[in-house]
Amino acid sequence: MKYLSLFFFLFLSSYSSAQKVEIVKALTERDSIAYQKLKQQFAKYINSAPDSSLIYASKIKKFSSDRNYAIGIVEAPYFKANYFRRIQQLDSAVFYFDVSSKLAKSYNYPRGIALSQNGLCRIYYFLGQSENAVKACTECLDVAIEMDDLMIVTDTYTAFGNIYSRQNNMKMAIHYYLKADSIHSKTPQRPDVIAATYQSLGTIYEELKDYDTAIKYFTKANNEFKKIPANVTFYLNTTDLHLGAAYYHKGRLELADSLLQNTYTYFKSIKDEGYVARNSTYLGLISLNKDNLDQAEQYLTEGFQLHKDKLFSYETALAAHELGKLYIRKKEPQKAIYYFNQLLLNYNDDANTLLQQETIKGLSEAYALNMDYANAYKTLEHSYNLKDSLNNSHNLASIREIDTKYQTEKKEQQINLLKSQNETVEQQKKNQRNLLLSGIGIVSIAGLFVYFLYRNRKKTNTKLKEIDALKTNFFTNISHEFRTPLTLISIPIDDMIADDTISDKKRKQFTVAKQNSERLLELVNQLLDLSKIDEGHLKLHIQQGNVLQLISALSESFSYYAKQKNITYTIGVEQSLEAVWYDKDAVEKITINLLSNALKYTPENGKVSCKAYIENHKLFLTVKNSGKGLTPFELNNIFERFYQTNEQNQGSGIGLSLVKELVGLHNGKIEVKSNPNEETSFQLHISIDKKSFKNDTVIVNSNTKIEKGIPLYTNTSIEEDDVFKDSDLPILLIVEDNTDLRNLLKQSFEDSYNVITAPNGNIGVELALEHIPDLIISDIMMPEKDGITLTEDLKTDERTAHVPIILLTAKAEVESQFKGIDTGADDYITKPFDKKLLALKVEKLIESRRQLQLRYSQELVLLPKDIAFTNLDEKFLEKVQTTLDKNLIDPSFNVKEFSEAVGMSRMQLHRKLKALTGLSTSEFIRSQRLKLATQFLKTSDINMSEVGYSVGFNDHSYFAKCFKEVYNCSPSDYANKHAQNYVAR
After folding, report:
1. Staple partner for 783: which of 274, 608, 648, 686, CB 3.0–4.6 Å?
2. Does 578 reside within a domain?
3. Calpha distance 282→271 (Å, rounded)
4. Do residues 756 and 827 both lie within one domain?
């Protein structure tokens, strides 16, 4: 990470006077103090323990939502964005900054707009998206100037400087940095704001190789950081990293090594991979200077990989450049060529021409070392041409001239300031008298306001209770309405399952439908139970029976599901003949919910245990499972209705809420114990003494016999390995996180396609790049990587840009469809969908590709744009054409060399060409040679026996055979026919 971002501290600072009034209006004094403490806790942990800061970001959201506090509602996603920025999940950071910006606009909160756009600006320039960065910073600056908020204006000028610095436009960069310093000279800004400016100025001079001036600014930055009344270890280390780099360039290697080893250890300890990567690069350079090449290679490779993983294009480019130079020194030209080309092709998004020129020079040297003198000369010539076109903003003299003018103007301003100070003192005395009178008036108005606020809040609470009652009635009514259609669905499904004439495949499909209808009915029943509890209408129906035998039977029914997931499942239920008093339905729901929840969140090869016993007229039940555990925030909310630890998890979020209510109704208590990455344990006890139940409890006379084999909703389908049964069938990739739907789709298509499946977007992308399918069907809402991101990844990758993608989603809004199509998806279908319509769309999309393949095979000359599906396809075909122009007539040119030339594996090139032209790689090369031969036969007097040799065939008879297979005549007949046509004309 090249530049420091301190902008989130702006939210933690004091507000302007106008904004203070707004907060007083919205919160009581006590709530305002509590809110400020939450923000201070966030700031305390954001660098040292970011996961802890996320807890406080969530608390800020809940605190603000509970009080309908507009400013807090805007700030909550802003803090969450800073958490994701800190852990370098930049796509998520962009999402939450954008959410904060939209909320700020909806609440008409200018400060929130400015700071969220400031955050977007800084993320965008890290991602190399300069245009988006400039747009976001401009919007931030416009709002900040209108508010006259000098802190945000100063910080935004620094952000503008960072954008232009990454583009190597040093004149513009220093122009904005000095504008920030100018504001500080007139109106001193907070230390964290101006420290970021000084650090950025130091970076400019570091890049201009004026290391003495760079060290001066870095030292000033650290001096400002030390004025901050908080833990600033993180920021001091970022500046020390820059100082270490500057001392390295000055040749003071021991001092540089000492500083950088300390910062490397620190950033490793807090797992900040961006700074670790930059540290690694410079430690690698120091090792190079000490002739320790192996250690240098280790550090530089670590820097390159970390930058690459975090998508920091500019920083990845620098690391790739240094690795290229290292491998030249190690006399390994092939590796040097690889890293230099990686930089030029993939990682210099900011169009830094100076870095390009140095890289191209290094590439020329690597080619020469590899004895490829033609490419060496050509690359060197490109380097000199690029040098001539370099922006004159690199001129250090011109930068110094700007700085000198600025310092002169600043001294003149200081002289004028001294002259006006005496006049200002008199005016201040008058202002103080006016402020005193104004303060008395404001206190009186504030008293009246607090009275009206109290009265309105009382009315609001009454209205909220009415709304809550309406909501409960709504859930009750709609749940009852669901039961009738569910019954009508279940009956015909049962009839079809019982029909002996249907196939096994159909029976499996109906079984899946049956399981899901039962699951839906179970959720409806849970909603009804919760509604009854809320209204006080749910009563226990206690009966005498063997409760441990019931729990034993219920827990045994989960054994098959545990075996499917390869989970070690331990049942420790005591055996007892004692008959006790309990509500059978309540105990069933408690046990089933706890066990299904435990198995659901336990990874494969994990552990689950169920233990139950009776003691002192109480039933004790403990369910434990291994897994990722729960955070303190999740522990506090786990029993909240509709709460889920992950928004993308399947489920309704009502099971554990119902468990807690039923345990309380049964005169019991439940608690959960867990820590992140540790075991989770649910422990409860309920009364089984008849005397402990209330008079309104229903007593049921029943026998004590408990039947085993309690029916339970479990997924018994086992996904088979994806195997291609027929290599000629199109390949269809299905990406869907719901196992039942994934298997159903697979069964629907496996007779006509080679089907491969993936349970989430990450695996979907990997399989798409591995197999290059003919079409992809993907859900949108999935864990790890959603369908929108999957589409963006594949449509921007040259290897898969041509693959048609159909997105499935439960969202039917037009805006959602626009978003899906805008990402590059070829079609968009909402759930529930018609299976026949989906099959038809798949067929037609593949058929449209085949029509273009047929067109290619029938025409002699076809431009890339005529058979390309996307711009990336067109560029790919142009690259293919360039490669063939150079190598087609070479008889030794083969598939391996072809795939290396276009930068793909042999299989990827084969699948790509097959999709675009209908031909395999070898067939494509042969077809191109034959098309070139027809041109020779039409227009050249070349000897017939030499035509084949002229287009890359080793054997004339083989050439004649291939030619006849394609054009249904011999080469000589083809030439005579076209000669006669020419004479006839």
Report:
1. 648
2. yes
3. 18
4. yes
For residue range 251-298, what is the model confidence (pLDDT) as tens digits?
A: 888 898 888 899 989 888 888 887 888 888 888 888 888 888 888 888
For residues 801 and 877, the answer to whether their CB atoms sit within 8 Å is no
Place of tokens 């297979």: 965
CATH number at residue 969: 1.10.10.60
Q: In this structure, what CATH number is given to the domain that contains residue 75? A: 1.25.40.10
- The domain that contains 626 carries what CATH number? 3.30.565.10
What's the CA gap between 539 and 504, in Å, rounded? 44
Residue written as token pair 């890289």: 359
Name the strand (E) or helix (H) holding 280: helix 273-289
| Residue at a domain's end among 147, 177, 210 | 147
Residues 761 and 874 in one domain: no
Is residue 82, in this structure, part of any structural domain at all?
yes
Instruction: Report pLDDT digits (tens) over 558-612.
Output: 887 888 889 999 999 988 778 899 988 889 889 988 998 898 889 889 999 999 9
CA distance 959 to 948: 6
| Angle of CA points 86, 88, 90, to nearest 5° | 110
Asked if 105 contacts 124 with a C-beta cutoff of 8 angstroms, the reply is no
**Sheet strand arrangement including 698-700:** 580-583, 541-545, 698-700
Return the amino acid letter for 912. K
* Secondary structure of residue 203 in the 3-state scheme: helix
- Best CA proximity match to 177, nearest among 206, 153, 201, 145: 201
Instruction: For residue 351, report the phi and psi dihedrals to the nearest 5 degrees.
Output: 55, 45
By 3-state DSSP, what share of the chain in percent is helix, strand and coil, each rounded to 5? 65, 5, 25
Residue 148 structure tokens? 């006259």
Backbone φ, ψ for residue 683 (5° rounding): -125, 130
Q: Answer yes or no: is 272 within a domain.
A: no
The residue from 147, 175, 197 where one domain ends is 147
- Peptide linkage before 730 cis (omega within 30 of 0): no
The pLDDT tens digits for 24-44 are 345 788 888 888 888 888 888
Tokens linked to 885: 């122009």
Distance CA 654, CA 642 (A): 5
Residue 403: name the closest of 254, 216, 225, 555 by CA. 216
Residues 44 and 130 in one domain: yes
Which residues are CB-contacts of 448 (< 8 A; sequence separation ≥ 6)? none
Least confident residue range of 192-201, 240-249, 455-464, 775-784 = 455-464
Cis before 783? omega within 30: no
**Does one domain contain both 930 and 864?**
yes
Instruction: Domain of residue 794: give its range.
Output: 731-836
Global pTM value: 0.35
863, pLDDT greater than 70 = no
Percent of the chain with pLDDT over 70: 73
H or E element that contains 776: strand 775-779
Residues near 666 by beta carbon (within 8 Å), at least 6 away in sequence: 540, 582, 583, 586, 587, 686, 687
User: How confident is the model over 616-625, as pLDDT tens digits?
Assistant: 889 999 999 9
Residue that is written with structure tokens 């227009």 in the block: 939
Residues 553 and 696 in one domain: yes
Three-state SS string across 548-563, please? Answer: HHHHHHHHHCCHHHHH
Residue at 485 is within a domain: yes
The residues, ordered by sequence, that sit 6+ positions from 641 with a Cβ below 8 Å of its Cβ are: 530, 653, 654, 657
Question: Is residue 605 domain-shared with residue 473, that is, in the same domain?
Answer: no
Rg (C-alpha) for the chain, rounded Å, is 35
**CA-to-CA separations, 94 to 98, 226, 306, 565, 827, in angstroms, rounded:** 6, 30, 20, 36, 26
Residues 485 and 560 in one domain: no
How many domains are contained in the chain?
Answer: 5
**CATH code for the domain of 781:** 3.40.50.2300
Reduced to 3 states (helix: H, G, I; strand: E, B; else coil), residue 21 is helix
First to last CA, the chain: 69
Number of Cβ atoms within 10 Å of the Cβ of 180: 26
